């Protein structure tokens, strides 16, 4: 009988040893990727429909430029308030509401034709509103990844949702172009906005905090919690709720922002994001113009060629996140696991300056695609923010981080435009973009030291009631 007991023991222990943690977190990641793709499709609707709208509504080029800027200004202004709302009310409610609201505002732009006399004013208001509503999106992505993914899986998760910005161009630009041609520019807004409304409804059924998800298994919850996931971020304990009541005032938020700006790690990540986004905004704004004016391509050729760097950026982004996680899983320190693909990718992006010294168009396209591949690979800032943000203010920290990136979206087109007016050439513009990629490398090598979670000065002290 004792021998039989000893033989039975492995049989009962085996299921526990082979239990797998589950993959519910990847359903959450798929939702983030899908929503972020629609997010960037909404941003690009005006770019695709703009030419037809100009003709139909008699919008001047100057007015169109103002309309393009409306999104960036409100997106910048709303970053920190959006992050605060995420921390105060949770990612599910705030992010889900934001998807619904920005989608309604996008759909509303399709009705501008009925108000031809006030089209520019109304369109500016709606674009401004879309930018404000989308402000919580990327800080929300960062919070959700921090809550759902252990540290050694967070690089890929963050890189995947961040790479959706490139995927949106590849997937939706042809569709929106077809809608303009076949159905009219109005339907670019109504179709893309309508998809967003549906996604907002799906969001309510799919996204939850880890502990409250109806499909969560204990094995997966234990796995992600043991790996460093902030599973209680939106489900605080009683003590944390009491602490939150004392940390959500405007004055306290300003103190938290000051803490982030004084901390060497977070400041270096913020500065690095500004320089990385400079590369992004060159490709989003001036790259097609460069192909037409400097490389004598047709508009049709430029439209096709411009999608190639976006595709390369997507591939590079996914690869950078995968590489970072693999390094961490093999025992490399988190600091090195994050910095290696960031530095390698951004050094590759500096190659954009070589375009000043080549004449063959195919070689220019190759170099630009390589540079954007490197940018995608090095754009792990959101993964780093998930690693370093204080738990209590992850949304606020993400808002500050994205504010630095949004500033680049305003400054970069203006600086390059000034360079072109002053020199009549893109040579200095490409040198400027290359230098910004190099400065991002400097930020991560010499300002950011150890990548670890930042603690607030009052962490661990719960105020007495």
Largest sheet: none
Distance between the termini: 61 Å
Output the helix-strand order. Answer: HHHHHHHHHHHHHHHHHHH
Q: How helical, in percent, are the residues?
A: over 70%
Give the overall pLDDT as a whole number: 84
Total beta strands: 0
DSSP helical segment count: 19
The proportion of residues in beta strands is under 5%
**So what's the overall shape?**
globular
Structural class: mainly alpha
User: What is the radius of gyration?
Assistant: 23 Å
Poorly predicted sequence stretches spanning 5 or more consecutive residues: 1-18, 237-247, 459-465
Describe the structure.
This protein has helices spanning about 1-20, 25-55, 60-75, 80-90, 90-110, 120-135, 135-150, 150-180, 185-205, 220-225, 240-245, 250-260, 265-295, 300-330, 335-350, 360-380, 380-390, 395-425, 425-445. The chain is an all-alpha fold and about 475 residues long. It starts with a helix and ends in an 18-residue tail after the last helix. Residues about 1-20, about 235-245 and about 460-465 have low confidence and may be disordered.
In short:
This protein has 465 residues and is mainly alpha-helical. The protein has helices at residues 2-18, 24-57, 61-77, 79-89, 91-108, 119-134, 137-148, 151-182, 186-206, 218-226, 238-245, 250-262, 264-293, 299-329, 334-349, 361-378, 381-388, 394-423, 427-447.
Write the layout of secondary structure elements.
Elements: H1 2-18, H2 24-57, H3 61-77, H4 79-89, H5 91-108, H6 119-134, H7 137-148, H8 151-182, H9 186-206, H10 218-226, H11 238-245, H12 250-262, H13 264-293, H14 299-329, H15 334-349, H16 361-378, H17 381-388, H18 394-423, H19 427-447
Helix pairs in contact: 2-3, 2-5, 2-6, 2-7, 2-8, 2-9, 3-6, 3-18, 4-5, 4-18, 5-6, 5-7, 5-9, 7-8, 7-17, 7-18, 8-9, 8-14, 8-17, 13-14, 13-17, 13-18, 13-19, 14-15, 14-16, 15-16, 15-19
């Amino acid at each position: 009988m004792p021998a039989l007991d000893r033989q039975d023991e492995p049989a009962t222990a085996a299921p526990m040893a082979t239990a797998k943690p589950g993959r519910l977190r990847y359903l959450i990641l798929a939702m983030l990727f899908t929503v972020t793709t629609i997010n960037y499709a909404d941003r690009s609707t005006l770019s695709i429909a703009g030419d037809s709208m100009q003709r139909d509504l008699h919008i001047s080029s100057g007015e169109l430029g103002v309309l393009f800027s409306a999104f960036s200004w409100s997106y910048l202004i709303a970053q920190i308030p959006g992050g605060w709302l995420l921390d105060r009310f949770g990612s599910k409610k705030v992010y889900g509401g934001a998807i619904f609201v920005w989608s309604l505002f996008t759909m509303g732009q399709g009705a501008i034709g009925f108000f031809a006399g006030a089209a520019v004013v109304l369109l500016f208001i709606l674009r401004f509103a879309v930018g404000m509503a989308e402000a919580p999106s990327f800080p929300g992505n960062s919070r959700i990844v921090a809550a759902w993914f252990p540290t050694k899986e967070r690089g890929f998760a963050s890189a995947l949702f961040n790479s959706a910005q490139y995927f949106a161009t590849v997937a939706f630009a042809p569709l929106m172009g077809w809608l303009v041609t076949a159905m009219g520019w109005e339907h670019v807004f109504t179709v893309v906005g309508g998809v967003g409304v549906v996604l907002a409804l799906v969001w309510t059924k799919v996204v939850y905090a880890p502990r409250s998800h109806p499909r969560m298994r204990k094995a997966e919850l234990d796995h992600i919690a043991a790996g460093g996931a902030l599973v209680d971020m939106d489900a605080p304990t009683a003590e944390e709720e009491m602490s939150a009541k004392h940390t959500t005032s405007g004055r306290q938020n300003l103190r938290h922002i000051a803490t982030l700006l004084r901390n060497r790690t977070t400041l270096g990540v913020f500065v690095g994001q500004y320089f990385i986004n400079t590369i992004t905004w060159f490709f989003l704004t001036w790259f097609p113009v460069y192909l037409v004016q400097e490389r004598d391509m047709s508009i049709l050729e430029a439209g096709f060629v411009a999608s190639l760097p976006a595709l390369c950026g997507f591939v590079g982004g996914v690869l950078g996140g995968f590489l970072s996680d693999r390094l961490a899983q093999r025992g490399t320190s988190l600091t090195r696991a994050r910095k290696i693909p960031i530095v390698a990718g951004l050094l590759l992006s500096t190659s954009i300056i070589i375009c000043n010294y080549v004449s063959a168009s195919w070689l220019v396209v190759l170099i630009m695609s390589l540079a954007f591949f490197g940018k995608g690979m090095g754009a792990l800032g959101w993964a780093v923010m998930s690693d370093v943000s204080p738990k209590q203010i992850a949304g606020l920290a993400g808002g500050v981080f994205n504010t630095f990136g949004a500033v680049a979206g305003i400054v970069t087109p203006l600086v390059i435009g000034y360079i072109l007016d002053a020199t009549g050439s893109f040579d200095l513009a490409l040198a400027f973009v290359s230098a910004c990629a190099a400065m991002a490398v400097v930020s991560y090598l010499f300002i950011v030291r150890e990548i670890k979670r930042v603690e607030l000065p009052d962490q661990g002290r719960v105020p007495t009631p």
